[in-house]
Amino acid sequence: MQLRYAFRLYPDTGQRMALAMAFGCARVVFNDAVRAREDARQAGEPFPSAGQLSKELITRAKQTQARSWLGDVSAVVLQQSLRDVEAAYRNFFASLKGARKGARVGAPRFKSRKDNRQSIRFTANARWSITPAGRLHLPKIGEVKVKWSRSLPATPTSVTVIKDAAGRYFASFVIDTDPAADAARMPGSGQVVGIDLGLTHFAVLSDGRKIDSPRFLRRAEKKLKKAQRDLSRKQKGSKNRTKARLKVARAYAQVADARREFHHQLSTRLIRENQAIGVEDLAVKGLARTRLAKSVLDAGWAQFVHMLEYKAVRYGRTLVKIGRFEPTSQVCSACGVKDGPKPLHVREWTCAACGAVHDRDHNAAKNVKRAAGLAVTACGAQVRPGSVPAQRDETGSHGFSPQPRAA
Asked: Which entry of 32, 298, 361, 394 is annotated as an active-site residue?
């Protein structure tokens, strides 16, 4: 299984200029490749192959006066930009044919130099490395300072350098995890838990525990409104507007980082304690179009369930998604009688059949647990993780010193 480990980078002024050059060259090659394929499509000709694009847009382009500056950056960065174009077109055609899961993907579009997020990727043949001093050596950029929050568990296969909307730099390493080490880290557990996600409480567990909703966005609204108001008063194109935009982006980044950290800690704890977890498959997109949209998106249910998914695969746990139309709030968890739908303001109810008094959310979590337990009994718990694409970085303990390894 592959995971991404992200660490904060602190490039100096010269390195920032070199990174900006690399971002720009990668963007130009990407746009040239999209233009070449679009021209071929409009002319009714076959799409140029990856080899033809590499020869025309990189090798020969470096020899021209108009594109000679492409030689100032690592060739691997430019090659990986072409790979991104190929992957984008593969996903587009697979989506058209219905072979790709998820929402439909559009055709690749041109990248803009005004995009707030920029990235470049270095593979092993780029000869990047981690120095004995703990710095990240990148070809034609130099040794960049890294803030290590923990050690890398294995030798990375590639590193992606990212500049986000808040102007922060990150190095994202792709790591192949060791199944034996994962099994030793989290031994098997015989527990099964059901989770009812909500807004009053972020999660109510079948054992009665209630996890409060942090409401990160709601708590930061006053600060965000002030930053947005200051931005709206700045003249477009001015340096002050650029500074104000960065303040807004950093404020939103703090909210997103806090929410992600909360999701990571809670999902890891649940995975460690339980062998099987049941959770409702909520229609987040539909709920995001209601009057509760801000609260729903602030909770971040989809991100949390996604973390449970890949961590369950990694550590040999079983995650069972209960259908969104399952009447978990209408069925008595004591006798199993369906008592009918209830408005949202009804938080407690008494079963007409057996007289049991239920907390609405706790009762739903119990029903989710029962459904998850039946699914595990019928299908069997997952033993070892399979092949899963690289996921987003996990939360880590701060204060670890790096263990440099050559890539």
From this structure: 361
407 pLDDT above the threshold of 70: no
Query: Quick one: CA dihedral 230, 232, 238, 243, positive or negative?
Result: positive
Do 220 and 254 contact (CB within 8 A), yes or no? yes
Query: Is 361 among the catalytic positions?
Result: yes
First and final C-alpha spacing in the chain: 18
Say whether 259 sits in a helix, a strand or coil.
helix
Q: Which of 32, 280, 298, 339 is catalytic?
A: 280
Residue 401 has pLDDT above 50, yes or no: no
pLDDT digits (tens, 9 = 90+) for 126-142: 999 999 999 999 999 99
Tell me the average pLDDT across 274-300.
Answer: 90
Question: Which residue blocks in 288-406 are alpha helix, DSSP H?
Answer: 293-299, 301-314, 360-379
- Catalytic hit among 196, 298, 393, 394: 196
CA-nearest of 62, 83, 77 to 18 is 77
For residues 84 and 76, give the distance between their C-alpha atoms in angstroms, rounded to a whole number: 12
Active site residue 196: yes
CB 169 within 8 A of CB 19: yes
Tens of pLDDT, residue by residue over 165-174, are: 999 999 999 9
